[in-house]
Amino acid sequence: MAWAAPRDPYSVAVIIGNRTYQNDRVPEVSYAHRDAAAFRQYVIEVLGFDPDNIIDLRDASQAAMESTFGNERRQQGKLWSYLDPEGASDVVVFYSGHGVPGLHDKRGYLLPVDADPDTAEINGYPIDLLYTNLGRLTEARSVRVFLDACFSGDSHKGMLLQRASPVFVRAEIKEDTGNLTVLAATSGDQVASWDENAEHGLFTHHLLDALYGKGDKNGDGTVTVAETKAYLDRHMTRAARRTYLREQTVTSSGRREVAPAVARDGAFPARPEVSSGASGPATAALTVDADEMDAVMVTNDRSNVRAGPGTSFDVVARLDPGAEVTVTGRVKNKNWYRIALSDGRTAYVFSKLLSEPSETPAKSETTVAARSEPPPPPPALTVDDMQGTWRGYYRYSPRSSNAPVEFVLRLKVQDGAVTGTTVEPRTFGKGPSEYLYANIRGQVTPEGRLSFTKSYDGTGGVSHSVKYTGWLDLDARRITGEWVISSTRGSFDLAFVE
Questions:
Q1: Which fold has domain 383-496?
Q2: Which CATH superfamily is domain 288-355 in?
Q3: Helix, strand, coil share (%) of the chain residues, nearest 5
Q4: pTM for this one?
């Protein structure tokens, strides 16, 4: 009988697979994307979550993690915004990637792909902050966390910490209580191993076996956290000893009676296969609802071709401007085209990167080389397309000796109203905080005239407001303008990130 999990319209999952790191000396976590893809299937098929309620991140940066989980000053990140205000949301968090200890504070850190493991205190994401911010999600019925990472400074492919001695550095991972339950792949100074045959992290492989029913020791149709840990202690730990001659034991905390898997109609679904090399969201069994097409279009600019209809999917090819592509469908409710690659694979391109080919003038008998007309401009963007993350600088007047200050703006737009937050290094004020945070509120006209007030939230003793006005260049994805406070003024410029 086909498995059909009930749809859960309120619960939310965050799935992170960090495989490829920007620092050349940090080894890749070869199976992190496959781990994430397989766990996504479990969330949809076993838990019945709505795929639209899954925050699916591949090779997540520090900014992406902070945007999702919040930071030490503000925990209302993207995850919080997905929760049902009436308290009907369960939350599941999965992470596969590197973890490291802070060399100075001995805290455990998840390692973003743009981080340096030797300076995790600056550019890592603290594991205890993750637990704290998840514990503050008071509207969530339950929060379950699964971590396929270790925090010893070592990895399956070797040491991550250049400045540490070969002796392991222990990270203190604080346990939490309340509605938070955690299962982590290792204990103490252990290394998170891989299952080379299954092409998964050893923890993820045996965890999914347990959650697809093998962990139901007493046959009551539920797999509790206690049963899951017992299954891992026997099967994962045994595999680590036999394969690598080393210890790997699961760490668990929180409510052991919580059941992360429940049988439906008296049975658990069979665990599906994940195709070799799967990486992006739902690569294992990607089903995309699209309106069928049969058209040839051209690229307006250099374009990324992705494994699925979204920027969290892996880039599988790149197209030069003016390249012809065969479009086989338009994804429903999304601005993405489905295309056919020359090798027979199906892939996806953002719709505003493609347009109909222009007509080429017919060559006369005396024409030596007819020249094609340039492709038409892409479909016009609107101010709604400015929503997202922007990065740039604000600058003081030329007479000032102050250096430009980099800042990140996270922007939301609705019916011309603009809201969001900013973060920047602390270059004035006082206190221990290294950063200053502010909230913004303003408006944007359909023509792209932008004005907002940036109000610092008191961090570092800074609580004044600054007026910003500028113009949005949608084609270049840039915002330029000026800022003013009292008699002091300067300029700013921002470029769209994602």
A1: Lipocalin (2.40.128)
A2: SH3 Domains (2.30.30.40)
A3: 20, 35, 50
A4: 0.57
